[in-house]
Specification:
The protein is of the alpha/beta class and about 475 residues long. It contains 18 helices and 15 strands. The structure holds manganese (II) ion.
Length: about 475
């Protein structure tokens, strides 16, 4: 990444920071809107804390998207400033029409249509400088750069920006290390003794899950015979002389001695090689971000576990708990959030059982699998369900498309996921979702491996048929573009 790009990007964050400070000096009221995933909640927490420290008058709201209702609210309340974090760039046109440009700050990292006039907004987005917003900086990262300009003390929020980036899965690099602008945030956090960076086994639940459960719940790497089999997993560990418990308490991966860690890593590598899964070996070890000021064995100590906790508060309609934790509450909010995380896991399990209960709920088409979540699966959780199910499919070449209805909007929300295997065969779900949804008065897009779309409920069957056809085209080696949706 070029140095001038970074310099220009940072200059723009400083311009946004200045706008925010000017508003506060005039005692203006500020509305903050943020996205409800882990990154959006982190971003809201960072901006919230920065505003709180300035004694600003402000209000935070977390939503799934920006819509007419939010715009109407801004028009009616006339706040002196509205800040959008982790979304907003794709609503420039809508905002442009109705809200004075000088009263809007957008801190977003999503791709946006570049034919849209954005000069007069305080619009901070890495794509303006050709910095990749999917890997180099997240919504919370941008919020962090702004907060740091407002007050150097806000460097203590750098771990939250790292949590947000990991929540958005920006670690798609060798050894799952954060790169680009994200690595500048990591440098800040390490220098302030708030983050410790380690290389270790990548199984989820490093602080909170018993080791045998961490191994058994792993989909990446997928361990045939161990994934989904806690008993087999415990036996595997016992054969390596690794104790599952210490002083009555279950040991987690963080508790392994260096010697045990080595033994387990090489045994797992051998195991994968024996199964012919040599490509999974590289997924065993990765970069771990430890929040050193957080308590041991809590979900806040490991940045990826922290992100999952935040995500659950958003998905379960309790984002204010996540925001409070980001702003520093380690008391009641944390206690409640832990319960929410449990409830979230239970509802995911409930949905997974529901899908498996009847064949008509998950149908196999020629090129795709479709999950009919309709009115049963919560639309805020549908993405999680497809992410989990995609790794359990018999045919790795077929993407999974899950949908839930959003009755009040008369829309069906689709979440599409596929595998690295299918990507190598030419699948790009972002292109499929965009082309197919636009054909039926919807909207969609995203990444090659994970994408989404929204279409009117009465177009669901047509949309599914077209997705099936377009995926078939990609598997046959053809590209799918916007003109390709007939
Ligand atoms: Mn984001």
């Amino acid at each position: 990444m070029g140095q001038s790009k970074i310099t220009n990007f940072i200059a723009l964050t400083q311009k946004a920071a200045k706008k925010i400070m000017e508003t506060i000096q005039k005692d203006g009221f500020i509305h903050v809107f943020s996205h409800l995933d882990a990154d959006g909640i982190s971003a809201a927490g960072i901006i919230g804390k920065a505003l709180f420290r300035l004694d600003a008058k402000f209000r935070l709201r977390v939503t799934q998207w920006v819509d007419e209702k939010i715009i109407d609210e801004i028009i009616a309340d006339k706040p002196q400033l509205t800040i959008f974090t982790d979304f907003g760039s794709n609503y420039l046109e809508l905002l442009n029409e109705k809200v004075p440009k000088s009263k809007v700050v957008i801190l977003d990292h999503h791709q946006f249509a570049n034919d849209i006039e954005n000069d007069n907004f305080f619009h901070v987005n890495p794509h303006i400088f050709d910095i990749p917003g999917a890997t180099d900086v997240s919504g919370s990262g941008i919020a962090y750069f702004v907060a740091k300009t407002i007050n150097p003390k806000n460097i203590d929020l750098s771990p939250i920006a790292i949590v947000g980036a990991l929540g958005d899965m920006q670690d798609k690099n060798d050894l799952r290390t954060l790169c680009g602008l994200n690595s500048l945030i990591v440098e800040n956090a390490v220098a302030a003794n708030l983050i410790k960076v380690e290389k270790d086994l990548m199984f989820f639940g490093r602080e909170t899950r018993p080791i045998h459960r961490a191994l058994a719940s792993s989909n990446r790497p997928f361990l045939p015979g161990i994934t989904g089999e806690e008993g087999a997993s415990a036996k595997f560990l016992k054969n390596l002389d690794i104790d599952l418990k210490e002083n009555q308490r279950w040991r987690s991966l963080r508790d392994l001695q260096p010697e045990e860690r080595k033994r387990l890593s090489s045994a797992l590598a051998d195991y994968l090689l024996d199964q012919g899964l040599h490509f999974e070996v590289e997924n065993l070890i990765g970069t771990i971000y430890v929040l050193t000021k957080e308590e041991d064995w809590t979900p806040l100590r490991d940045a990826r576990e922290f992100a999952v906790l935040l995500n659950s508060t958003g998905r379960m309609d309790r984002p204010s708990l996540g925001i409070s934790i980001c702003m520093g509450d380690r008391d009641t909010s944390l206690k409640e959030a832990k319960q929410i995380l449990e409830d979230y896991r239970k509802s995911i399990n409930k949905y997974l059982c529901w899908v498996k209960e009847k064949p008509k709920r998950m149908k196999e088409f020629e090129n795709i699998y479709v999950i009919y979540g309709e009115n049963f699966i919560n639309e805020k959780i549908i993405g999680t369900i497809s992410s989990i199910l995609v790794s359990t499919l018999h045919n790795l070449e077929k993407p999974i498309i899950a949908f839930a209805n959003v009755e009040e909007e008369n829309a069906a929300k689709f979440s599409a996921r596929t595998t690295g295997f299918a990507l190598r065969k030419g699948i790009n779900l972002g292109e499929v979702m965009k082309a197919a949804s636009e054909k039926f008065e919807g909207k969609g897009g995203g990444h090659n491996i994970a994408a989404g779309a929204q279409v009117p409920i009465n177009q669901v069957q047509n949309f599914i048929s077209l997705v099936n056809i377009l995926v078939g085209k990609q598997l046959a080696g053809k590209t799918v573009g916007s003109k390709d949706n007939t």
